[in-house]
Amino acid sequence: SGPDWVPLKQDWNKRWCTLPANYIEDFAGRIDAFETRESDVFVVTFMKSGTTWMQELAWLLLNDLDFEGAKSSYPFHRSPFLEYSLINPVNGMDSVAMCNQIQGNTRLIKSHLPAQLLPRQIWKEGRKIIYVARNPKDVLVSSYHQMKGLAYANGSWDEFVDQFVTDKIIYSSFWAHIIDFYRMRNEENVFFVTYEDMSRDLENVVKRLSLFLDCKDLSVKEMEKLLKHLSFKNIKQSKFGNPTGFIKTVRKTTEDFEFMRRGIVGSFKDELSLQHQDKIDKWTQSILDEYGLIESDIF
Ligand code: A3P
User: Fold this and answer.
1) Its pTM surpasses 0.90
2) Rounded distance between C-alpha atoms, residue 173 and residue 50, angstroms
């Protein structure tokens, strides 16, 4: 086991991002030149921030609440992952080609790439972006379980916390990723929301997102059904909503892994030592100070 990518630091518009070593050679050009369509919607996040939850919600809004469709295929198939083949080369799937093959309805495309590495046309043409941010300690805990469970990493908490705060985890720097979108939160084509907002008041997020996506107003009954469908309990037990088995097969791992793990805000409180929490808080503060922000402004 162990990581199957070599972390690489790239400098692009004075932004750093840790990515697989073959990124520039095999992907950067294709992703940068990716042809977007007017109706495209991108769901962009740092990993483990509630991406799949948001994909399910946005897909349902964009597809006239097609619950039957949502219950009969994986979120990945309805809403492809732009750079999937980059982080999961074992699967042999060309994810950029897969996005291109989609015909018909609005494409809902997922990406964990930071702003500066997303397809250039998104910015040039003002394509719609839904950005979900989540607090760093819960992202770290969720990522740790995913990395271990899918055999990408096998180190200790100590090592993982250290890698997280020194930008050695894929897609980091975590804060640069969020701050770029936080600063764009009032742009017309950007919908900035947090996992914490979704946990606190999902109905409100649904209403705001529905407006952003130009979808029809939902009746009281439709809203009830949608909120029930999106609940952690429901998604965890649904065959296609919960991609645990699918991911384990693709990763060829038998490790103990659960994609729908806890689904709460603050799981770090009983999973991270106080020492680790303190290390992350100090790191957060040192970065946010530079931007004149405080963590509670965002979450
Ligand atoms: P935890 O590991 O903290 O439980 P992503 O989709 O970006 O990989 O994010 C995965 C995280 O979102 C996991 O967090 C997962 O449990 C949580 N999640 C997925 N669906 C959810 C839902 N319906 N409600 C709340 N949390 C959800």
Assistant:
1) yes
2) 18
